[in-house]
Design brief:
45% of the residues lie in helices and 20% in strands. It is α/β, with parallel strands linked by helices. The protein is flat, with a radius of gyration of 44 Å. The termini are far apart. The model has no long low-confidence stretch (mean pLDDT 85).
């Protein structure tokens, strides 16, 4: 039934969309006129300069001399009109006064933003002429722009729209309103020459091609001046200052009127020039109405008829008046949707197609309901039998006297196939296992004797064609018409899938979803068993806490999908490395825990841990889904021995974790067996991390500023902001003592963001005090580069302080820049787009890729102090410094040398072309107050 009414409605939609009868179009036009919104002119509304009856009476009959138009244009130019559109077709030269054409052309050129009207011309047979009705103002170069004045006329003879682009064989001409709008734009290039109209070739067919239909809203109150009044009274023309002006005929009898619903009063014509001015005003206020495309209108109509499927099923049984009211409401929904789109989105969706299709669909739907009601009684009689046939459970009825099978539904027949069930005894035909027949027979006997349903408690087993199945059975009494029990209904529910799902849920509750390894819950259970076994047998086991090195970098740079694949590969590698009796579990994130049974001695545990470290050090080869990428791998392992190091699970895991951190502190991947001295070292590290976190919250961090001087004239050209920790009175902690903790704990991200904001605020304070600080550089860490929020941090600092962005500079180390070149290049380009400078720090101490370096949007390169300290005596350092300066200058970058302490170093760098330097020769890092004195 649903398909019938939907297809009827859809066929109506397609037929009407293809045929598009005039009656349908007239309905849409009536709806548009009814729903057309009103719009008020803005403060910048265009001025209509009307060539009205009064102007003709005072200035003479039409057409006027071109010199008169030129005079008006000069007056508008002096008054400051932003752009001018003249809806007058100067299609023939002024033969009476050729100088008038030249004067008009000159006046147009003096203003520079004037558009003249063009229009298509029709031949006697109705076809489009090869030449447009276009201005003829002498033979000089064009000074005016062109805009067509072709307005659409609908079936009812009224004009509601125009096309923003039109032309001969190609929509190359803007509408006059659009041309004036483009000329008024600040971005308009006044030096550009107006385009020339190229007539079609003689061999081409000619057609007037239009594009971008637009509907202006109804508008009342556009400012208007009489041409004669404005010409005679220049003070009146001052009203056009900053406005666009439309000049056109409004005098009666000259045919420049349109029948349109846009007129303020109904059934009154609207001057064409006012129509174009209203279109211009709609363009500059974004109030133009666009017609919804035909495919979207078609889709809306199909959606409208499809929405009938959302009606409640019982609505057709209500009283007739209510159903008629509901149907009428539904038919009005397209009209309401059109009104909403027109009012809110300035989109015109013709509703007649959807309304007619809805009417047809509703009619078919109601007819279908009547047929459905007639069939309902017949279907009701068939439901019981159909439900019994379709039920997923196997249903079998037995004769009470002989206990032979009377009926078996398709599920039961499928389970017993190929045996025939009806007429056979249950034990002979239904393939239950022997141990399942006894409890089933007992349930049948009890059901017949006690006349109530009996649930078989035991799980029954069936030998089905597709494999063994597990069943739950219920026996219920079956009564005859006189109420006597004459049979039994057996229902067998197949629970095979449910039991498998339960096993899967149990596995999911104790195993990690990603790697398939035991999770924390199962690990805890196995640890308890291991502890009990070790204490009972007097043996030794080992617990290994494994943490992957640099895994966060893989996630941040290559994505979580790659990180998950790495975890799966390493999980399988750990399984392969361990024995079957050992346990490999995922602790969380990139951490794993291994239980090694019967290690024998600490040496045995050490050998096993070394094998794990070695296995984790092999490169990871990813498959084709990851572009066959190879990734380096490493891990740190902490080891505790059971029962030597304790017998409490929480205590053992804590010690293994501490041992792992001790191993992670080593220069390369290793393992560490827990010892009591780890507690103290880890405690100190955690205490320092807590104090550092508190320092960030309580404002104990501060910035000192080290000056950078030009080598040629010893002038201050920059500063570097260096972080300090005021841990107590007179106790100033340098970054070397706490930056590594900030990096490991992730605090460096918040600290780096604070440093950027604090530097911007200090620059703002210096500017507010009337000082002129040089650019100040702030170091950003590798963690901040991986965290894309550094761009937002810089943008927020600039927005809050309002400082010139060129006074802020970010320094990134060479190692960080080259770790993930493509990512860092994109990040630095976003920062550079903000106007902030960029510097590459510690150049030469990491590993450089010139292929990446040439793409970095840098301002400068900093030569590391390790190359400067031995200058000028060290030939190797001198060669490196000389090559670095030459490379930077070749790339157009500034060069800053760090750690300059002697005049000899200063002279060497200056001779090689280094731009600036910093170091103790110029002064160390100073507080903000001391630096303020340096700037005065």
């Amino acid at each position: 039934m649903r398909a019938t009414w939907w297809w009827a409605g859809a066929a109506t939609v397609l037929l009407l969309a293809w045929w598009h009868p005039p009656g349908l179009q007239r309905l849409d036009l009536l709806a548009y006129d009814l729903l057309l919104p009103d719009s008020k002119p803005s403060a910048r509304a265009p001025m209509v300069l009307a060539i009205d009856d009064a102007s003709l009476a005072r200035l003479g009959s039409w057409p006027w001399p071109r010199a008169l138009h030129a005079r008006m244009l000069d007056q508008l130019t002096q008054a400051g009109a932003s752009s001018i559109g003249i809806a007058v077709l100067f299609a023939e030269p002024d033969r009476r006064d050729p100088a008038g054409d030249a004067a008009l052309q000159a006046a147009i050129a003096r203003h520079g933003r004037v558009a003249l009207a063009v229009a298509p011309s029709r031949q006697p047979d109705g076809s489009i002429a090869r030449e447009l009705l276009q201005p003829r103002l002498g033979d000089g170069p064009l000074a005016y722009w062109l805009g067509h004045v072709d307005v659409e006329i609908d079936l009812d003879g009224q004009s509601r729209s125009l096309f923003l682009r039109a032309g001969l064989n190609a929509p190359s001409l803007p509408a006059l309103a659009l041309a004036v709008h483009e000329l008024a734009a600040p971005t308009h290039d006044q030096s550009a020459a107006p385009p020339l109209l190229t007539p079609p070739a003689a061999s081409d067919q000619v057609a007037w091609v239009r594009r971008d239909e637009a509907f202006p809203p109804r508008m009342e109150g556009l400012p208007r001046l009489s041409f004669a009044d404005a010409l005679d009274n220049p003070a009146l023309a001052d009203a056009v200052r900053g406005r666009s002006v439309f000049i056109g005929v409004t005098a009666s009898g000259l045919g420049a009127y349109l029948a349109t619903p846009l007129a303020p009063a109904a059934h009154t014509p609207l001057p064409a020039i006012v129509f174009h001015a209203q279109t211009f005003e709609a363009l500059q206020t974004d109030a133009l109405i666009a017609r919804v495309s035909a495919p979207l209108a078609l889709a809306f109509a199909l959606l409208a008829i499809s929405s009938l499927a959302l009606w409640p099923r019982g609505e057709g049984r209500g009283p007739l008046p209510a159903r008629v009211l509901l149907g009428g409401t539904v038919l009005c929904l397209p009209l309401l949707a059109s009104a909403g789109l027109l009012a809110l989105q300035r989109l015109w969706l013709p509703p007649a197609l959807s309304m007619l299709a809805l009417a047809v669909a509703l009619a078919f739907r109601e007819a279908g309901k009547l047929r459905a009601i007639n069939r309902q009684l017949q279907r009701s009689r068939q439901h019981a039998q159909a439900a019994l046939q379709a039920i997923d459970d196997a249903v079998i009825t037995l004769d009470a006297q002989h206990q032979t099978i009377r009926f078996a539904n398709p599920t039961a027949l499928l389970q017993a196939s190929p045996q025939v069930l009806e007429g056979a005894r249950l034990a002979d035909a239904y393939p239950l296992t022997e141990d399942s027949l006894e409890p089933l027979q007992a349930a049948i006997t009890t059901c017949l004797a006690q006349a109530h349903s009996v649930h078989v408690l035991e799980l029954l087993h069936l030998r089905a064609p597709d494999g063994p199945r597990s069943l739950r059975a219920t026996a219920s009494p079956l009564r005859s018409a006189d109420g006597r029990i004459d049979g039994v209904v057996l229902v067998f529910a197949d629970v095979t899938s449910a039991l498998a799902a339960a096993r899967e849920r149990e596995h999911a509750a104790t195993h990690d979803t990603l790697t398939g390894l035991p999770n924390r819950a199962l690990l805890h259970e196995r640890l308890q068993r291991t502890l009990a076994r070790v204490q009972r047998q007097g043996s030794m086991a080992a617990i290994l806490f494994v943490d992957l090195d640099r895994f966060k970098h893989v996630n941040d740079s290559l994505g979580h999908r790659t990180g998950e694949e790495v975890l799966k590969v390493l999980a399988q590698r750990l399984r392969d490395t361990c024995r079957d009796t050992d346990t490999v579990a995922r602790w969380g994130g990139d951490e794993f825990v291994l239980i090694l049974e019967d290690v024998g001695s600490p040496e045995g545990a050490a050998m096993a841990a070394a094998k794990i470290v070695e296995a984790l050090s092999w490169d990871i080869a990813l498959g084709p889904d990851f572009n066959d990428r190879r990734l380096p791998s490493a891990g740190s392992v902490g080891v505790v021995l059971v029962p030597r190091d304790g017998t409490q699970i929480e205590d053992l895991m804590s010690k293994a974790d501490m041992a792992m951190y001790r191993a992670k502190s080593q220069p390369k991947a290793s393992f560490h067996i827990w010892a009591s001295d780890i507690d103290a070292g880890l405690h100190d590290r955690l205490a320092l991390e807590v104090d550092l976190r508190q320092a960030l919250q309580e404002g104990q961090l501060l910035l000192h500023y080290q000056p950078q001087y030009a080598l040629d004239r010893r002038r201050l050209v920059g500063m570097e902001a260096l972080m300090r920790w005021q841990r107590g009175p007179g106790h100033l902690v340098l970054p070397a003592e706490f930056i590594h903790i900030a990096e490991e704990s992730g605090l460096i991200i918040d600290m780096g963001g604070w440093a950027v904001l604090q530097t911007a605020r200090q620059i703002a304070a210096w500017l507010g005090a009337g000082l002129q600080p040089p650019p100040v550089a702030v170091n950003i860490s590798g963690r901040q580069c991986l965290n894309h929020e550094i761009v937002q941090v810089v943008r927020a600092a600039l927005r809050e302080t309002g400082i010139p962005p060129q006074l802020l500079k970010l320094e990134i180390t060479e190692t960080t820049a080259m770790t993930d070149g493509d990512h860092v290049i994109g990040l630095l380009r976003e920062i550079r787009a903000l106007g902030v400078g960029l510097s590459l720090d510690d150049f030469g101490t990491g590993y450089s890729s010139l292929a990446y370096l040439k793409h970095f949007p840098l301002n400068e390169i900093k030569i590391d102090r390790s190359f400067v300290g031995a200058l000028p005596d060290s030939r190797n350092d001198a060669a490196i410094v000389h090559a670095t300066i030459a490379l930077a200058r070749g790339l157009g970058l500034q060069v800053v040398a760090e750690g300059v302490e002697t005049e000899a170093q200063n002279r060497f760098l200056a001779a090689r072309g280094c731009h600036s330097a910093q170091g103790h020769l110029y002064g160390g890092a100073r507080s903000a107050g001391e630096t303020t004195g340096l700037l005065r």
